[in-house]
Amino acid sequence: MKIIYLSSARIPDTWAHVTQVMKTCEAFAREGHTVKLLVPRRGKTSIEDPFVHAAVEPIFSIQKVPCLDLFPGTQVKLLYWVRTLSFFFFARLYILFSTYDFIYTRELVAWIPSRKTIFELHTITPVISKLILRLNKAQGVVTITEGIRAELMSLGVPSQHILTAADGVDLNDFSHPESKESARKRLGVPINEKLAFYIGRLDTWKGADVLYTAASLLASDIKVVVIGEGEISIEKLRETYSVVMFLGFHPYHELADNQSAADVLVVPNSGKSDISAKYTSPLKLFSYMASGRPIVASDLPSLREVLSEKNAFLVAPDDSEALAAGIRYALEHPEEAKKRATQALEDVKRYTWESRAKHILDFVEAA
């Protein structure tokens, strides 16, 4: 089949959703289909090769169409909409003169020909609740969690019209990680101390603030290490939370090696927002599971769809003391931690990008 993946994301870029889009395209292409990723032509980033950055094979094509990218990099709302709407205008022209079997997209926009489109939803918003008729006319809807699926059904989308497909992982990316000692030397972190790592965006709904406070409650021989960026500069974070080691952004292709430096990996998501409690399917969760390291995670419905007491240590969300206690427990009980990490490594085999793509393609063919 000929598949057009429509995305308004800048390619390449460092955001996790860019990796998710690239991995999905690669997985569709590995199933023998012709895949074209249709994206806006935007200002250059420091990343030279989008395929190398996302650790995907160049077995699909990337087609860039014009957009009005005024002041590249800015997030001013007006300029965002100018850029996005101008991209949609040119993308629509491109699609009108293209041949394809279906469009796959995370963009819920009115001009896409519904009957030949699969919409992938990562959240429920007031806008989505007003577009239920459009979703019902689509070829199908893919949701990344059962929480999103349940809400769509309550809004009037038939259950048979929805497929839940959690995000995934490429196990090959994690098959030969660097040794712990080598990774720690490269990152410049303590060699002999216990290290709890968080790797990802430093957003409030992802529980970053809770993790910072938990770090101050741990013994001096347990360090919290953070790899990633957010709205607050790394310099400011280092000043405010001196007990935490902030390493800044590191590219995806280093992820397996960086995870190997950890004794524990942490998913401290907040339960205060629906996107975290019910809708998210974090890429970090699956990469953590593939690491062989024990996971300490917030006990939330979204994470419970993948995690349990058998493959992770689950703690109360938004509770720094509970998070610190979970980290301590995992480190103080190495045999139990190893058992749960081994189970996670086995469980994650169900969540490869290839198996996800097959599941979606079967759903498309049956629609």
Condensed summary:
This protein has 367 residues and is of the alpha/beta class. It has helices at 16-30, 50-54, 77-96, 126-129, 132-137, 146-154, 180-187, 208-215, 234-240, 255-259, 274-279, 283-289, 301-304, 320-332, 334-347, 353-366, and strands spanning 2-6, 34-40, 61-65, 102-105, 117-121, 140-143, 162-164, 194-199, 222-227, 244-248, 264-267, 295-298, 313-315. The chain folds into two domains: 2-168 and 352-366, Rossmann fold (3-Layer(aba) Sandwich), CATH 3.40.50.2000; 171-350, Glycogen Phosphorylase B (Rossmann fold, 3-Layer(aba) Sandwich).
Number of separate helices: 16
Provide the succession of SSEs. EHEHEHEEHHEHEHEHEHEHEHHEHEHHH
Number of strands: 13
Query: What is the CATH C level class of the largest domain, in words?
Result: Alpha Beta
Percent of residues in β-strands: 15-25%
Biggest beta sheet attributes? 7 strands, parallel
Going across the major beta sheet, what is the strand order? 3-2-1-4-5-6-7
Helix content: 25-40%
CATH topology of the largest domain: Rossmann fold
**Through-space gap between termini:** 15 Å
Mean pLDDT: 95
CATH superfamily caption of the largest domain: Glycogen Phosphorylase B
Number of domains: 2
Low-pLDDT regions: none
The helix/strand class is: alpha/beta
| Second rung of CATH, namely the architecture of the largest domain | 3-Layer(aba) Sandwich
Radius of gyration: 21 Å
Overall morphology: globular
